[in-house]
Amino acid sequence: MELNDTIAAIATASGIGAIGIIRLSGADAITIANKIFKGKDLTKQATHTIHFGHIVAFDSTLIDEVVVSLYKGTKSYTGENTVEISGHGSPYILQSILQLCIAAGARMALPGEFTQRAFLNGKMDLAQAEAVADLIAADSKAAQQTALNQLRGGFSNDLKQLREQLINFAALIELELDFSQEDVAFADRTQLANLIAELTFATNQLINSFQLGNVIKNGVSVAIIGKPNAGKSTLLNSLLNEDRAIVSAIAGTTRDTIEETLNINGVLFRLIDTAGIRDDSDDLIEQIGVGKSLEKMRSADVVVYLFDVLQADLTELIEQIELFKKEGLKYLLVANKVDDLGLAAAQAKFAMLDANMLFISAKTKQHIDTLQQRLYNTVISGQINTESTIVTNARHHDTLLKVAECLTDIKAGMDADISGELLALDIRRCLYYLGNITGQVEVDRDILGTIFGKFCIGK
Ligand SMILES: Nc1nc2c(ncn2[C@@H]2O[C@H](COP(=O)(O)OP(=O)(O)OP(=O)(O)O)[C@@H](O)[C@H]2O)c(=O)[nH]1
Ligand SMILES: [Mg+2]
Fold first, then answer.
1. Which ligand is nearest the CA of 293, by number?
2. What domain range includes position 195?
């Protein structure tokens, strides 16, 4: 990674906008901008100031009227001299200004290179840098809040504490090693065992939060499953408040899955309407659709099993519940068309099957809000507003699993009374993995490449 050249990129989204921004970062950012800027001499201006002027090509052609922001030295996002040129948001103008910056000595930035520089210059740790990408991609309140918490160092602090405790532990063990001839034990073994237990607990808590973190980041997938004509497409439309899927009294109306997103209490849900499941269809396309429905059912975070209170059969429902339990699926049983049978009659007929059963009318939108709330509670169940850190990044999750493995090894080693030297080795390995998440230890170049390669250019 080159750090001594100056990089440039368009930082705003492609397409027409009111304003577009070109960003420059590196030792020569200000002198390069000064070469193409007509107005005050930028090299003589104070940091954190903005200046109106013109961008002019080397043949004196006027390109745009702009405002330039200056950040000098380490007090910038990247920790280097940075210039942001705000011009009119025409892709043609922005490209022209960018080309001029390149001609004046800058290099095209790689994806995420500004943030990578911020990391390499010590402006943020690796977990925080990764949160920048998550924040940009956040499409719900929950995703935004977890990313922001991570960006502000919440997660890094948790890791730092774990790491510090482990370093203290290591220090005691190594002290023992120094005095090994004299056969003294500085490290109180029960106290050490307690510390490892504490660390294991904290690590596992972080690991377990990933399930929630993952749904927050990627949305909760909800498969609406049931027999033909149960009212699945009607339910999808009611949840979305729009006529998205075709509804008809003909069994087998939906053939392909239909996916739409819905925001419930700030969490993104991916609703999937599926083809009604039956095994006696002789229509080939419908059969393929049924296969897809089963696939969606198995991979969903939650299954909404919808049935028609007039048609459903108790034995079949019991079999269905057994199946969900056997496959370990999270499910909600939802009785539909209560407007046809009446709520009391429907409850009398089916409620004993499952205490949590919901009774709705997809068509008249009765209890649709209850279903939404129930979906939210099933997945989130009060976990989201707690102060505790939620791991949302797969790399962090995988590394934490390795930390947990090391802790298990340390504990096993202590139980078996292995030598301090071997114990110290396991502890070092554990410290390495903890440091890997925040980039406190040297992180593989390939890993950095993968992390920052996923960013957009200009960030
Ligand atoms: N009375 C009543 N009719 C409903 C309700 N929900 C759906 N229906 C009707 O049931 C029929 C089937 O509805 P759909 O939503 O197409 O059913 P589906 O489960 O998507 O059916 P497939 O796509 O064939 O699997 C339509 O005539 C709907 O108007 C309801 O709550 N009450
Ligand atoms: Mg349908």
1. 1
2. 132-214+393-439
